[in-house]
Design brief:
- It is a single chain.
- The chain has 179 residues and is mainly α.
- The protein is 42% helix and 7% strand.
- The N and C termini lie close together (10 Å).
Length: 179
Amino acid sequence: AVAAHGPLQLPAARALGAALAEALRSVHGAGIVHRDLKPSNVMLTPEGPRVIDFGIARPSEATTLTRTGATLGTPAYMSPEQASGQPAGPPSDVFSLGAVLTYAATGVGPFGQGAVHELVYRVIHLPPYLDGVPDPGLRALIAACMEKDPARRPTPERLLAHLSAEPAPAPQGTHWLPP
């Protein structure tokens, strides 16, 4: 939708963020970490956004990757701990939610484009590029999601409360999306 129609306007971006926070609350509540939340794993349906593709999801208590030294996920949307081969818990999905919202609000990811090693370096060592996020409140919320320290990231519950504080159209049907 973003590639075809451009960045989402603020109300639609907030509605998407609230729906993703609600999805993560449910996923994490079931004891699962998605580990690959990215724009192509979010379907926009008449019933609202749906998180899909749990192919590399793991129980949140799992501490090992598929094989020693393996890094799973999409570099432009993975958390620093995931990019460096560390265990990825629920805060990792929150980082990815921030990256997805950056893309939804600007049309570009928070770490740009490039070779895998360049993206991984930026994810681990550089701050996300958020200047294109037009709303200061949404920019601050995304920045909190994308803290390098997982302990400093908000929970999905806190995100949902913040994104629901201002009225936004419910992400059901298609009225909340651009024409």
